[in-house]
Design brief:
The complex is a heterodimer. By secondary structure, chain A is mainly alpha-helical. Chain A is built from eleven helices and one strand, in the order ααααααααααβα. Classes of the chains: A mainly alpha, B alpha/beta.
Chain lengths: 266, 537
């Protein structure tokens, strides 16, 4: 057990090191920061203007219900960032195994004493850490934007939202890792992951055509539904289980696929 | 032999296609009849054939497909993958069944109020909500799912009225967005509310709807008949639609023939006198008066030019029916309805009219109502015509204008009154103080209740064809509900008290965010990427 942990840690460090010495990864992060920063400022402006209009209506004597603008803002921005992540996450996961295949190092990994499981877990942890680092500036902007709010906001909804983002990223990256283990082309891996994740994102729409138990079961697969739950401030145990299932499934399938790879040459 | 069967290794393609075609056919047609099933089964048979025959007709020297090591590994992988998928599916199934929800929002935005939870807990019968709308608004779905999570007796369904017109007709759906509540055991259905982008499904309506439809008690409304009143059954000039709407509100409706009975039945929640055209005999007016004196509830609608003989009774309440006709302000006259259609957009402050805002209701040929204050009686004018309207005394004189004998507006064409009943046996205005005034020990449980009365100077507004236009139906339904003193008071469920917060940014903070988000942080990324690339070169 201890060796497995050490193995995971070793893989994790190797992966992280490769991210922080890769110019491509910095470029991806920079583009993500630019786009998310732009979306952040636009959303913030939009929400503030909306609140101003609302206040004008109140001042003009139209009776209006109270409105919690910071809460609406957190919900909106995390929704926007979640959608943006759909494009970024497949790019992060595309090289996880495909790159090793291309360079011919996958044989080494597959036949090394480290189990396929440990490799997959280490790699996933590495890429999740990288994505988490990428999302940190957002937390900083949010802290600045919400620092003057009166009465002060309660932080738990915000933190839960970011946990949701991390869980969503974990699910997508895990499935992306599996896709990446199937091919030696990073582009193909990225496109397949993107397609799969998009399908899981909008599967709600398909579920509506069914209705009944089948519809409910299909709708339960939807990533968007569970992500929305979390960023709204609802902890639903079934949503957590779904995310955990996706992450586990991705790791399992990756290990299986590498296993199969070992015997393909025989 | 070998050549002839070498096509076998391609069997998997048509097999997969047939299965796919079967599934698509099933999804598109929405039914899983023989054709989709047939296609799927044919596909499975083909793939089965492929699995049995594959490798049989290949090079006899190489190990056959099923004996290769890679095949064995793949099969192992396939079996364990399927096993894992099944296990994950089961875990998720259990997780959904036993799902716990914790609402971390401050005002518990996504949690039902304690009142609703109580109602759901005490619910005995199955209740289903039908929403006739083509789009499933997530907000509405969330609310309904919240109910569903509390009890398995609650269910809901969204129906597209265009795709399912038969069902929509069975429910009597008028507009897309109508919501109905149905008692599962007796299939009794009630209209709940109409949803639109402006008005979402409200918890208060749903909970009160459940409360109402599951309660056994139904109020009984009697419609006085026999003097040319509006007919309750289908037909020209009948009020059957309004009567039906009352039934949806949990009322039982029955005609009342006072000439035979002599008195109002004791189970009456309200007696309605809608548009008599002949004079009521004195005995019947007396019966109504007695009923009212015991805390009875009356709704009276009398058209102009009718001597209904109700004046002595109405006078005891301080109400006098004017004989003139309300003429609408010239700028509000409906183009094809004529000046005698009173359009009302102003309503008195009263429970009956509190939700109406500036909505429109209209009354073809209405008479104004005069109110004089009488002690113990509280009177509220309900419907007020435009200030520029007037009461016309001579309708034949053209053009109609405000002149001598007329009365300027605004006119009240309806009034709601209530008073506490004093236990005097005959409070007629000429009551001589008879010394025997020991109130007869009639066991009248109504005596403690205040008596209520609503008077309309028009009865046409609820006949079929008018009742479903604008607010006309609501004016009537709310009046009957108020007048009948329905003991089933709706629960008042407070809307969630959301903290009123704003994001306030001073200039420095706004600048800081702008600089960080659009400048410094992305630049840091790009520059580092450049530096790392340069170093590794």
């Amino acid at each position: 057990m201890k060796t497995v942990l050490y193995n995971i840690l070793a893989i994790y460090r190797r992966e992280l090191l490769s991210y922080f010495t890769s110019p491509l990864m910095y470029a991806i992060a920079a583009v993500f920061w630019l786009v998310s920063g732009f979306l952040f400022t636009v959303t913030l402006d939009g929400v503030i203007q909306q609140a101003a209009q609302y206040d004008q209506a109140t001042a003009a004597g139209i009776s209006t219900a109270p409105i919690d603008i910071p809460y609406e803002f957190i919900r909106t921005i995390l929704g926007v960032i979640g959608s943006l992540s759909l494009f970024v996450l497949p790019i992060l996961s595309m090289g996880l195994y495909a790159e090793e295949r291309k360079r011919g190092t996958l044989e080494l990994l597959a036949t090394s004493p480290v189990t396929n499981w440990a490799v997959a877990v280490g790699k996933l942890l590495g890429v999740m850490t990288f994505f988490f680092t990428m999302s940190l500036p957002l937390l900083l902007y949010e802290a600045i934007a919400l620092s003057n709010v009166n009465p002060p906001i309660q932080i738990n909804v915000l933190l839960l939202g970011h946990l949701g983002l991390l869980l969503l990223a974990g699910s997508v990256l895990s499935l992306g890792m599996f896709m990446s283990s199937l091919t030696d082309s990073t582009i193909v891996a990225a496109i397949f992951t993107f397609t799969l994740v998009l399908a899981l994102w909008v599967v709600d729409l398909i579920a509506r055509n069914f209705g009944g138990v089948v519809g409910e079961a299909i709708g339960h697969l939807s990533l968007l539904k569970h992500y929305t739950n979390l960023i709204q401030g609802i902890v639903d145990t079934s949503s957590l289980v779904v995310f955990a299932s996706y992450i586990f499934l991705g790791i399992f399938l990756t290990a299986q696929s590498i296993d199969a790879f070992r015997f393909q040459r025989s | 032999m070998k050549r002839r069967f070498s096509f076998v290794k391609f069997l998997i393609l048509p097999g997969a296609m047939l299965i796919l075609a079967g599934i698509s056919a099933g999804i598109v047609s929405g039914t899983w009849g023989s054709i989709p099933f047939g296609l799927i089964i044919a596909g499975i048979v083909l793939i089965g054939l492929w699995m049995v025959l594959i490798g049989r007709f290949e090079d006899p020297l190489a190990p056959t497909f099923w004996k290769r090591r890679s095949t064995q590994a793949s099969t192992n992988a396939l079996v364990s993958t399927i096993a894992v998928l099944v296990i994950l599916g089961l875990i998720n199934f259990l997780a959904v069944r036993a799902a716990q929800r914790i609402d971390l929002t401050e005002s518990r935005l996504f949690t039902l109020s304690p009142e609703s939870q109580q109602v759901l807990q005490e619910m005995q019968q199955g209740v289903k909500i039908w929403v006739f709308s083509s789009d499933r608004n997530p907000q509405d779905v969330d609310l309904l799912e919240n109910y569903q999570r509390r009890t398995p007796k609650f269910s809901f369904e969204f129906v597209d009225p265009q795709a399912n017109p038969g069902l929509a007709q069975a429910f009597g759906v008028k507009n897309a967005g109508d919501v109905f509540i149905e008692l599962q055991s007796s299939k009794r259905r009630q209209f709940l509310q109409s949803i639109s982008p402006q008005a979402r499904l409200s918890e208060s309506r749903v909970t009160n709807g459940i409360l109402q439809i599951t309660s056994d008690r139904r109020s009984k409304a009697y419609f006085l008949q026999g003097h040319g009143e509006k007919s309750l059954t289908e037909g020209e000039g009948a009020i059957s639609n309004s009567v039906k709407a009352l039934e949806d509100k949990n009322f039982t409706n029955e005609p009342l023939n006072l000439a035979q009975l002599g008195r109002v039945p004791s189970d009456a929640s309200a007696v309605l006198v809608i548009g008599p055209t002949r004079t009521l005999p004195e005995g019947e007016v007396k019966a109504l008066q007695d009923y009212s004196n015991q805390g009875g509830n009356l709704l009276i609608a009398v058209d102009p030019n009718v001597k209904a003989g109700l004046d002595p009774f109405l006078n005891t309440w301080g109400v006098k029916l004017d004989d003139r006709i309300a003429i609408n302000a010239p700028d509000q006259q409906l183009t094809n309805a004529g000046p005698a259609v009173a359009v009302v957009t102003q309503y008195g402050a009263h429970p009956i009219t509190k939700d109406f805002g500036n909505g429109i209701s209209f009354y073809p040929i209405a008479r104004p109502i005069d109110i004089t204050q009488i002690s113990g009686v509280q009177a509220t004018p309900l419907l007020l015509t435009d200030p520029n309207s007037w009461a016309e005394s001579n309708i034949k004189q053209q053009p109609l204008k405000l002149d001598g004998g007329d009365r300027p507006g605004p006119l009240a064409i309806s009034v709601a009154l209530d008073r506490t009943v004093t236990p005097t046996p005959s409070p007629s205005p000429t009551a001589s103080p008879s010394p025997n005034a020991s109130p007869s020990p009639s066991p009248s449980p109504l005596a403690s209740k205040p008596a209520r009365l609503v008077v309309f100077g028009n009865s046409t507004f609820i006949v079929n064809g008018f009742s479903n236009q604008q607010l006309n139906g609501d004016v009537f339904l709310n009046s009957v509900t108020w007048v009948s003193q329905d003991p089933l008071q709706p629960l008042s469920i407070r809307p969630k008290d959301v903290k009123n917060r704003r994001i306030v940014l001073n200039n420095e903070q706004a600048l800081l965010i702008g600089f960080l988000a659009l400048g410094i942080v992305p630049l840091f990324g790009f520059i580092t990427a450049g530096v790392v690339w340069w170093q590794r070169r």
